[in-house]
Amino acid sequence: MARSSTSKDAQDLFHSLRSAYLSTPTNLKIIDLYVCFAVFTALIQVAYMALVGSFPFNSFLSGVLSCIGTAVLAVCLRIQVNKENKEFKDLAPERAFADFVLCNLVLHLVIINFLG
Amino acid sequence: MMAGGGVRFLVLILTVAICGAASVFQPISDAHRSAALDVFVPVDGSYKSLEEAYEALKTLEILGIEKKSDLSSATCENVVKVLGSSSSTLKDAFYALNVNGILKCKIGEAGPKDIVSQLQAGVKDAKLLLDFYYSVRGLVLVKEQFPGTDISLGDAEAIFRSIKALSQSDGRWRYSSNNPESSTFAAGLAYETLAGVISLAPSELDPSLIQTLKKGIVKLFDSIQKFDDGTFYFDEKSVDASQGPISTTASVIRGLTSFAASESTGLNLPGDKIVGLAKFFLGVGIPGDAKDFFNQIDALACLEDNKFSVPLILSLPSTVISLTKKEPLKVKVSTVLGSKAPTLSVKLTQALSSKSVDSSVINNQELKFDADSATYFLDSFPKNFDVGKYTFVFEILLDDSAHEKVYITEAQTKVPIAATGVISIENAEIAVLDSDIGSVESQKKLDLTKDGAVSLSANHLQKLRLSFQLTTPIGNAFKPHQAFFKLKHESQVEHIYLVKTSGKKAELVLDFLGLVEKLYYLSGKYEIQLTIGDASMENSLLSNIGHIELDLPERPEKAPRPPLQSTEPYSRYGPKAEISHIFRIPEKLPAKQLSLVFLGVIVLPFIGFLIGLTRLGVNIKSFPSSTGSAISALLFHGGIGAVLLLYVLFWLKLDLFTTLKALSLLGVFLLFVGHRTLSQLAAASNKLKSA
């Protein structure tokens, strides 16, 4: 009985999370999707490196850090754009987006330089 | 203007000795003439410029080489074209007239008048030295080539003064009044120009002007430079001058020659320096460069025939006296271009031997003259004239009779002479001695002129002695330059020893006890070879004397081994072993297919992202519709795209600095556009919120 209850609890938990998530605004969902995309790309790069060895190590680092960096910046954007976040009430979402774009451009300049 | 006519009586014996190394200078010969044909006849049948044509034709004319007719006609066409056109520059007209003077092309009737008016205008408007040079010398050439043409120089004294104004106190000249740099080459050009002004002036110029010029020449000669062998030359002061010593010295000589020719009171130039300048040009040899060749020959032609002094060169066809052949020593005296010298006498004042420098073997011997070959010769040498190296000191005495030109020679010409003869080799013998007692075990007499078959044997306790006597033809002791004794083992290992000479006797003693280690403990048959050689020895020899059987003790373990001898004696000059370079092993790269597969796999998350976006219902409905905002929005997205494209280019081929420069521009643009777009968006959303 305990096992079925834990699995039922897990299922209930999963369902409640899912329904809560469905109510988030679309723009936040877009950002979440972007973060997942970036992290997946980083994981694939790590898997490739594990397979073939890290010969151009700088290229590997550059690729992985590009993905992780852009994911981090997207998370920051999400924090700032989220209307439920009281801390950033006065910050306009357009300003946050502009910061996101600027930081991404600087990150990618450094990445491309390091790519070799 | 009186030419320096009249008869001059001059005997020049300069008592100033010129200290310098002994060397022989040869006048211009047929080797120069054949080289000139290679240097100056263009391959494609025409000269590149009139300046080149003039230099080539003048050199060929001075050397007495015939001109080619097709070349002449092609050049003449060019000359006629330049002289006929009214828009030719002064430089082109000048060189065209020079070429015309050599080729004597047919210029039309109106030709000279146009040219004269152009050159006269050039003289009037001239401000730079080169303009004065081309126009004045051009007028002089017109006067020579078209006699009867009316050439008036206008105010000759004013022109003289304006050229003189460019001179400097150290004897050099400036090219223009703006440029403070002075040049010796320009001084030569200036003297030629001033000579032209003097010759074209309608009346005599103020003698004080000419006097100051002569002082300038003396100052210019103060800046002359010299080499150790007694040659003098002019060179520019600055390191990066465009003219080298040959062209600078030639320019100065040209200038002085024309100045002396135009000037009536005579020019006195230091004689030893004139001879030194002649030797400088003769010492150049055969130049490979056309300009150097022209300058050399032109300067020598000026020295050959001028109004101050004509240098005479003493040269020897051969500097070796063979005491066995008993041929006379021949000496030639000629002008620099090889023409005949006037009557003179040559005296050998001293013959200094290299062994005893202070006493001379020959004193004040006059050389006899052979009129057929125009050479002076010395056929009798004193009895004590031995083989060896000598320095012969010659002096030239010009005859008292009248000469039209002033000739000048070096005070003393020092020539290195080598006397060779047959050295007699006597009492040559080779012996094996017992070392402690010194008694002779076996002794053989040698005849070094033939290869002998001497056969000796020795062990390591004995010595080998070789001795012989060398005497010169008159019986003096002779120390050869090379006296080598070689022992060659059957295994091709060689040992060479020097035979020492003391007095008449030459001896070598080899103590095998001390040499055992050097001989690598190799016992067996050794071939003996003796080499005696010297530059003064006509019968230098290399003789295989025979062989010696050496009995040496066994090699101990630590003794050095003989070096490996290659069978082929010249193999050390052959190709060496191939060097195999060790390169860094390249990193192992994954297979190409694997990389391409992963490229595909990487794209998958991106596709997943796009699919997810469509599933979320992403749209661009809030894209602004009004034109202003639409344009800013488009520019914003375009700007971001441009920056990403710049990054791709940066990765592919640009470098960081170009990228940063472009990025700064794009960034500023993006900043403005983005601010506009986003503020418009913010305003729109605020309106929605408030509404």
Please render the helix and strand layout as text:
The complex is a heterodimer of chains A (116) and B (691).
Chain A lengths: L1 H21 L3 H27 L4 H25 L11 H23 L1
Chain B lengths: L29 H11 L9 H14 L5 H16 L5 H14 L7 H15 L3 H17 L10 H9 L8 E2 L7 E2 H17 L6 H16 L2 E2 L5 E2 L11 H18 L8 H13 L6 H15 L5 E6 L4 E3 L6 E7 L8 E10 L6 E7 L1 E3 L4 E4 L9 E11 L8 E2 L4 E8 L3 E11 L5 E6 L8 E6 L2 E10 L10 E8 L4 E5 L1 E3 L2 E7 H4 L8 E10 L7 E11 L40 H25 L10 H26 L3 H35 L1
Parallel strand pairs in B: 5-13, 6-14, 17-24
Antiparallel strand pairs in B: 1-2, 3-4, 5-7, 7-11, 8-9, 8-12, 10-11, 12-14, 15-16, 15-18, 18-22, 19-20, 19-23, 21-22, 23-24
Helix pairs in contact in B: 1-2, 2-4, 2-12, 3-4, 4-6, 5-6, 6-8, 7-8, 8-10, 10-12, 11-12, 15-16
Subcellular location (chain B): Endoplasmic reticulum membrane
GO biological process, one term (chain B): protein N-linked glycosylation
Protein name (chain B): Dolichyl-diphosphooligosaccharide--protein glycosyltransferase subunit 2
